[in-house]
Amino acid sequence: MEIRIFTDAAALAEAAADIFEATITEKPNAVLGLATGASPVLTYKALIERCRAGIISFKDITTFNLDEYCDLPQNDKNSYYTFMQENLFSQVDILPENIHIENGNADDFDKEAAAYDEKIAAAGYIDLQLLGIGNNGHIGFNEPADTFTEGTFRVKLTESTIRANSRYFTDSEMPRYALTMGTGSIMKAKKILLIATGAAKAEAVYNAVKGPVTPHCPASILQTHPDTVFLLDEAAAALL
Ligand code: F6R
User: Fold this and answer.
1) How far apart (Å, rounded) are the C-alpha atoms in residues 229 and 120?
2) Are 106 and 209 within 8 A, CB to CB?
3) Is 127 a catalytic residue?
4) Alpha helices in 57-151 (DSSP H)
5) Which of 200, 182, 185, 150 is nearest to 37 (CA)?
6) How many Cα atoms sit within 13 Å of 85 on the Cβ side?
7) Ligand 1 contact, 201 CB (< 6 A)
8) Is 60 in contact with 169 (CB distance < 8 Å)?
9) Beta bridge pairs of residue 6
10) C-beta of 228 in contact with ligand 1 (< 6 A)
11) What distance in Å separates the CA atoms of residue 234 and residue 124, rounded to the nearest whole number?
């Protein structure tokens, strides 16, 4: 596991964009695993700028998002579909048919989850997976639990995650369930890039990097991945 610490958020985002650029330059039809939330926003901005400047192109790129809320309309302002359209997809040259996000309104969640895993496998698995980390150590929506998860599944969100994400749901109630890639799906990615900023993440980052490998801190499994890099600001790295 490689750890890099930055004094400013813009430099961190450029370093993350450099890693994307290297992957896309080496493999223009790479498969990217993408995250939502506050952590990747500046990185997506940097990728949009590089796409506009002709440095990278998404025209042959395939993407799979980590997760999506269940029972929230796809076009709700808080859906991860909307987040991805607004923060990346509508501003780069990606083909709509190459974008994959779980359908949180599927009639049969188990079938949707299995089909999602099959699509990832058919695409040749993920070349570069971007992650944030929850204050409780979650990656994707793999919440602290007694066992690590495998493929995509429907998860009941923990109180800690509901507390952390409710701030976005100002005029509707935050969903209690989500579909998420499992830790097993995430670990199959060839390279993993985790971004964490702010003091609220310091304990989770410490447990992920220095703690035991345990499903009680799902991100700790990344210690066993052969090619993982953590990009942190000083506040998130404070306990290391
Ligand atoms: C988002 C996701 C989550 C977030 C995590 C951190 O797709 O899978 O694991 O990465 O909750 O969220 P932020 O970046 O908003 O602090």
Assistant:
1) 22
2) no
3) no
4) 80-87, 109-122
5) 200
6) 10
7) no
8) no
9) 233
10) no
11) 36
Residues making up the chain, counted from first to last:
240
Distance 41 CA to ligand 1 centre (A): 11
Q: Could you list the pLDDT tens digit for every one of the 240 residues in the chain?
A: 999 999 989 999 999 999 999 999 999 999 999 999 999 999 999 999 999 999 999 999 999 999 999 999 999 999 999 999 999 999 999 999 999 999 999 999 999 999 999 999 999 999 999 999 999 999 999 999 999 999 999 999 999 899 989 988 987 889 999 999 999 999 999 999 999 999 999 999 999 999 999 999 999 999 999 999 999 999 999 999
Q: Sign of torsion, CA 95 48 183 141?
A: negative
Whether the Cβ atoms of residue 75 and residue 85 lie closer than 8 Å to each other: no
3-state secondary structure of 195: strand
Report whether 98 contacts 178 (CB < 8 A). no
* Residue position matching structure tokens 């310091």: 202
Provide the pairing of β-strand 177-180 with 67-69.
Answer: antiparallel
